[in-house]
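Exercise 7b. Backbone tokens:
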């Protein structure tokens, strides 16, 4: 059973249509028979954003889930361009939003987008850091953060995870011809296409729910996938309490109170805004691009 919604969550549901007016489209990377997509669509509906949504249910990629994820992102960039989209929110099917930080992080993200226009590549709403302090990674490979002129928005280098990010139209157009070469989409972007134009919002807004992609079987402990055994079980508790403070401190950044999560954001379970629906959603038809309408 999902936890009850807090007063803050009930409040923002009533003002949801005001979120991210600079975002013109939402594209979702999703597989056939997805178990997590209904929950994500339900959350987007609560936020008044379903009219922006488009997605294609993809079959499992014969080359594995990493290849499928890579190709899914590139295909959704192309679909957004075909729709005539500008700034686009990209989501993977297992993304979930943390309600207690939603108002503040959406506000900071929108202020950044309104100020920058298309002068950025990616703004990460969900992300993970290379936080190893031992011999696992060279210092040059550890996550680096830097303050920007936008409140609670930080330039980021050496990151991973692409389950929730906002991408500019020029970035989609520039990289819509990328081809999978054995490197995951997040690893390729951060290693080969970092132009000092990747950013994160604090506090982190979107998490990944417990799931397995292209799973063979799943238990409470782990999911057996087409590759190695995998468990994805991100929680606000572990990120806000352990990871986020450490990576910001390592980069000598002290954020003001308005950039820190409130006390009720520290939950030990993947956040849900309310119980998810049981029925599988109807696939919406993509909105035609202005060029297609003109024809």
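Sequence design result:
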């Amino acid at each position: 059973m999902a936890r009850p919604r807090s007063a803050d969550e009930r409040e923002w549901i009533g003002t949801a249509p005001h979120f991210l007016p600079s975002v013109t489209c939402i594209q979702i990377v999703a597989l056939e028979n997805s178990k997590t997509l209904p929950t994500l669509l339900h959350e987007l509906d609560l936020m008044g954003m379903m009219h922006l949504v488009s997605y294609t249910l993809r079959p499992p990629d014969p080359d594995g889930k990493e290849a499928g994820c890579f190709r899914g992102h590139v295909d959704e960039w192309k679909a957004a361009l075909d729709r005539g989209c500008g700034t686009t929110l990209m989501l993977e099917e297992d993304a979930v939003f943390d309600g207690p930080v939603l108002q503040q992080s959406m506000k900071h993200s929108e202020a950044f987008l309104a100020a920058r226009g298309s002068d950025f590549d990616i703004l990460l709403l969900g992300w993970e850091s290379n936080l190893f302090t031992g011999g696992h990674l060279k210092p040059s490979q550890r996550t680096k953060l830097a303050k920007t002129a936008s409140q609670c928005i930080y330039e980021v280098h050496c990151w991973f995870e692409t389950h929730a990010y906002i991408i500019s139209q020029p970035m989609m157009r520039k990289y819509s011809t990328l081809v999978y070469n054995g490197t995951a989409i997040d690893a390729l972007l951060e290693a080969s296409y970092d132009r000092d134009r990747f950013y994160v919002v604090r506090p982190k807004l979107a998490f990944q729910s417990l799931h397995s992609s292209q799973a063979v079987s799943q238990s409470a402990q782990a999911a057996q996938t087409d590759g190695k055994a995998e468990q994805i079980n991100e929680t606000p508790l572990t990120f806000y309490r352990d990871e986020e403070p450490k990576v910001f401190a390592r980069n000598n950044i002290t954020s003001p109170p308005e950039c820190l999560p409130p006390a009720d954001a520290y939950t030990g379970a993947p956040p849900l805004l309310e119980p998810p629906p049981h029925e599988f959603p109807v696939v919406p038809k993509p909105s035609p691009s202005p060029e297609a309408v003109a024809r």
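Instructor comment: The radius of gyration is 18 Å. The domain at 7-214+223-294 is CATH 3.90.550 (Spore Coat Polysaccharide Biosynthesis Protein SpsA; Chain A).
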